[in-house]
Amino acid sequence: MPGYSTRNELVPIGGHVYRLRVLSDKQQFSDPDGHGARLGISSAQWSLFGQVWPSGRLLAHAMHRFDIAGKRVLELGCGIGLASLVLQRRGADIVASDMHPLAEPFLAYNAALNALPAVHYRQLRWDVPLPALGHFDLIIASDVLYEIDQAELLAGVIDRHAYPDAEVLVTDPGRRHSGQFSRLLAARGFTVTEERCLMKDDDLPPYRGRLLHYTRIGENTAT
């Protein structure tokens, strides 16, 4: 797709260095056919999918360690797909999703760049049900709570796609809407553990980053 420039970035995760094609800067915009606009992606938001953000690195590190045995995993807002690539390398049953029109080709390119099989991808709008996507044991996302309505939308996706016994793991750089999201999931039968994390090397405690791990056992699901 014309209209953007890229660079390669090296990201070490769990002793392996991932090579990633990312957008070369955060000021790019190219939507000649209006596809992004029809999806609700503004010119200011257009380039955000194509970066390696601190919360994305944190999620990728978590997925390197996480118990994935027997679990079907969905990544929401995958962007360039770092966490999904880590899971693919581990042999996980992973589906990556995003609504940006360039997320799929960037993910496919980055999988090939790291000599990995293609990651199963679905374009997913959080406000549009997609029953064919199915259900998941683990739903993951990074820095997806930066707008006021996103907590409700994300909770709705979890309603539609999480099994009764399920886990949700979200990395967040201290956005104020994470508390609302935790309350919404508590109403759906999830319990939460929170780990404070560095977002930058020079962060000082109490760290602003959060690794939010939600767990639900089916018999505790709210009706």
UniProtKB/TrEMBL annotation:
Keyword Cell membrane: no
InterPro entries the UniProt entry points to: CaM-Lys-N-MeTrfase, Methyltransf_16, SAM-dependent_MTases_sf
BP term (GO), one: methylation
The entry's keywords: Cytoplasm, Methyltransferase, Transferase
EC number: 2.1.1.60
Predominant place of localization: cytoplasm
Protein name per its UniProtKB record: Calmodulin-lysine N-methyltransferase
